[in-house]
């Protein structure tokens, strides 16, 4: 049995590569970009989450707020680049989900290089993220975020929370 | 990448080992035992189902009635013993789901040996099956089935479909 291949198979079914965008007054263009990798399991089957955590040497495990599962999650960009994305370069997913892994990897690298701190880099990140999980629901559309970034208008204004920036 | 290990990891999250019991007038003790292995996936990620089918050389793929997914399924007892159970003996699941695989394997072997055609064998199969997926819902309880088997009373009588046996 090859554990690394096993984990890729498991993640192909159960893993989630996510890039979320949150309006933020603390960030240069009004948005915080948050990439994360996660896998959830019923608590009685959590052993595998601990095995992944041990193999990769990163991430944390906590109860998921939404249900009675445990969630293994990696949010640190350096770990995402060096441990998570690197794993799926060596042991790629065999389904079309690997397309998302490649986009996710590119986004993490751009953030790791600080490219999210300039307009072009951030726009590239938004576009890549909007190509991921097209069936998933998003709080903010790519157009909303890109328009807000370009105009310099903070989305928090719209919600009546006029910021100081 | 080791494909067999990958598939075990995938099945750990997404696979279903199931043993169902159906009242039947055609069967000696009034019950048909149906073991099956299945994995469902969204149609756009079905590639993996075809890879499993090719690796094992058995099973069929069809649209799942319940939703918009495709289901890979193995129902032939010989294939279950020689291809499916045999795979998970060589590449066992790493979660507690492997306990169910062992029970499932024992049930398939008993049926393969024709033990479901005698009272003791069938009772053993029912007991093993009731220990599987304890959180899952069952149409008939183990007690109902065992009582019906022992008394020789067909459960179809209860539904008003008095049989000829």
Give a written overview of the molecule.
The structure is a homodimer of 165-residue chains. Chain A is an alpha+beta fold. In chain A, 47% of the residues lie in helices and 19% in strands. Chain A contains seven helices and four strands; from the N terminus they run H-E-E-H-E-E-H-H-H-H-H. Chain A has helices spanning 3-14, 47-56, 77-90, 97-112, 119-130, 142-151, 155-158, and strands at residues 15-23, 31-42, 60-63, 69-74. In chain A, strands 1-2-4-3 form a four-stranded antiparallel beta sheet. The longest helix of chain A is centred in the middle third of the chain and has 16 residues, at 97-112. Chain A is globular. The model of chain A is unreliable at 157-165 (pLDDT under 50). Chains A and B meet through helix 1 and helix 2 of A and helix 1 and helix 2 of B.
Shape, per Cα inertia axes of chain A: globular
Kindly state the percentage of residues in helix of chain A.
40-55%
Q: What is the residue-averaged pLDDT of chain A? A: 89
Largest interface: A-B, 25 and 25 residues
Summarize the biggest pleated sheet of chain A: 4 strands, antiparallel
What is the gyration radius of chain A calculated from CA atoms? 17 Å
Contiguous runs where pLDDT drops below 50 for at least 5 residues of chain A: 157-165
- End-to-end distance of chain A, in Å? 55 Å
% residues in beta strands of chain A: 15-25%
How are the strands ordered across the major sheet of chain A? 1-2-4-3
> SSE order of chain A in H/E notation?
HEEHEEHHHHH
Number of strands of chain A: 4
Oligomer: homodimer
Q: How many DSSP helices of chain A?
A: 7
Provide the structure class of chain A.
alpha+beta
């Amino acid at each position: 049995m090859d554990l690394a291949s096993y984990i890729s198979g498991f993640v192909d079914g159960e893993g989630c590569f996510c890039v979320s965008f949150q309006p933020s007054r603390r960030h240069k263009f009004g948005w915080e970009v948050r990439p994360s990798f996660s896998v959830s399991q019923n608590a009685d089957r959590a052993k595998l989450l601990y095995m992944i955590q041990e193999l990769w040497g990163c991430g944390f495990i906590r109860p998921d707020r939404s249900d009675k599962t445990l969630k293994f999650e990696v949010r640190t960009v350096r770990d995402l680049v060096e441990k998570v994305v690197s794993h799926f370069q060596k042991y790629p997913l065999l389904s079309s989900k690997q397309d998302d892994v490649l986009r996710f990897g590119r986004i993490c690298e751009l953030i790791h290089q600080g490219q999210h701190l300039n307009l072009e880099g951030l726009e590239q990140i938004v576009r890549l993220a909007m190509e991921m999980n097209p069936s998933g629901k998003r709080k903010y559309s790519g157009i909303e975020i890109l328009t807000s970034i370009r105009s310099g208008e903070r989305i928090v204004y719209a919600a009546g929370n006029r910021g100081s920036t």
